[in-house]
Amino acid sequence: MNRRKFLKSASSVTAASAVGGRIAVDPKLGERAPAAAPVRPSVLRAPTTKKFDIHTHYYTQGFFQSIRDSGGDFSFATDPTGQTVITFNGTRFFGITPPMTDPAKRIEDMDRVGIDVEVISLSTPNVFFADAKGQPAVARMMNDAYADLVAKHPTRFKAFASIPMDAPDAALTELHRSINDLKLNGVILLSNIRGAALTDKRYRPFFEEANRMHLTIFLHPMIPVAAEPLKEYVLGPIIGFPMDTTLAIAHMCYDGMFKDFPNIKWICGHAGGAIPFLMERMDTGFHDFAETKQKIDQVPSYYLKQLYYDTVTFSPHNLRMLRDEVGTDHMLMGSDYPHRLGSIDRAVSSIQTLEIPDAEKHNILGGNALAILNNI
Questions:
Q1: Can you spell out the DSSP letters for 296-349?
Q2: How many angstroms from the chain centroid is the CA of residue 34?
Q3: Which of 41-50, 198-207, 336-345 has the highest mean pLDDT?
Q4: Quick one: DSSP state of residue 232?
Q5: How many other C-beta atoms lie within 10 A of the C-beta of residue 207?
Q6: What is the pLDDT of residues 36-68, one digit of tens each?
Q7: Which of 361, 230, 348, 279 is nearest to 25 (CA)?
């Protein structure tokens, strides 16, 4: 490298550190610590030309039929526009769109906006419309379908596996099969499992194994357990989803899961709900309430800044705040395609128009995905 290129490179890294670095926080004192040098500037990964959409959902007609046949709390209805929707105890949370089951249409839309790779996953209700006995078959069906799609289009699709969490032995079997045999790229879990928190002791063996495997887990919201207040105005996905994500992350943080299982790479959907906005309040709670110190010995923000967050909040103000809190080396581009509230168009443009160094954009658009997905 000649002197001119070296100086240009050094200048870029310095600027990125000054703008994208995070404010110094004593992990035991949180925001009450005096300001100091930045804790850690954003890691500038090797530039990649590939754009990864980390938050997309794909379904099969067989999956929808399984929900219809389940006869449980989930049912199909029609909204005022004629769209087929799925409800949970009468609360709408899911509207069916044609690209959900159409790979050709998905690739057409990816090409139109410049996305190279979609990481597909099974959104809410995932396999959890079924009981413990029925979950393993649904998980196998969908994980096999995902592996088939990836095999047909290996340069365009990657996938997160679904796991039958209420069947502990089958959950571990499907984890190993999907990661080791099918070569999927991580797993998706919901913010609550049929009303149970992810901190439930029934799930601990799964997380112990996930930690051993250095697993990537995409945390996706579910309708909150108390769904009754969300029935009007489509409040389930608009407000309920980020509420439940926030609650799940806060619960896992204070419960010590991020402390006990540091090798799990969590990707928090919808930018972590309200977590970036509430980090300071959670740290203050750690100082003020003895109950919050029972299972963790650092302020919550210490653990929360080690998680990863997708960019399914297309406001530049929100994205800048997320960057200020966690750094661009912990942000991954997502669209929530092809659901309403998501946007494959804004997923790319919202990152490209941010006034940040190109190296940081590369992190968000694809570099971080390449760094943390399994089997890449």
A1: -SS-HHHHHTTSEEE-----HHHHHHHHHHH-GGGEE----BTSTT--HHHHHH
A2: 32
A3: 198-207
A4: G
A5: 19
A6: 333 445 666 666 679 999 999 999 999 999 988
A7: 279
Other CB atoms closer than 10 Å to residue 162's CB: what's the count? 27
- Report how far residue 222's alpha carbon sits from residue 353's, in angstroms, rounded to the nearest whole number: 31
Tokens found for residue 170:
């089958």
Residue 136 CB burial class (10 angstroms; 0-12, 13-18, ≥19): buried
Instruction: Count CA within 13 A, CB hemisphere, residue 263.
Output: 10
Question: What's the gap between Cα 113 and its chain centre?
Answer: 21
Residue reference for tokens 């945390």: 219
SS3 sequence of 148-174: HHHHHCCCCEEECEECCCCCHHHHHHH
3-state DSSP percent of the chain in helix, strand and coil, to 5 = 50, 15, 35
Using CA atoms, how far apart are residues 190 and 262, in angstroms rounded to an integer?
Answer: 19
Token pair of 112 as six digits: 């139109």
pLDDT in tens, 294-332: 999 999 999 999 999 999 999 999 999 999 999 999 999
Domain residue limits, the chain: 49-61+99-372
Residue 131 phi, psi dihedral angles, 5° rounding: -85, 180
Give, rounded to a whole angstrom, the gap between the first and last alpha carbons of the chain. 30
CA distances from 81 to 75, 85, 129, 213 (A): 18, 11, 26, 46
* Extended beta strands in 186-273, E state: 187-190, 216-220, 265-268
* CA dist., res. 323 & res. 343, Å (int): 20
Helix, coil or strand: residue 258: helix
Distance CA 126, CA 124 (A): 5
Say what the pTM is. 0.87
Q: What is the DSSP letter of 47?
A: P
Average pLDDT over residues 211-227: 94
CATH architecture of 49-61+99-372: Alpha-Beta Barrel (3.20)
What is the DSSP code (8-state) at residue 202? G
CA 130, CA 137: separation in Å to the nearest integer?
Answer: 10
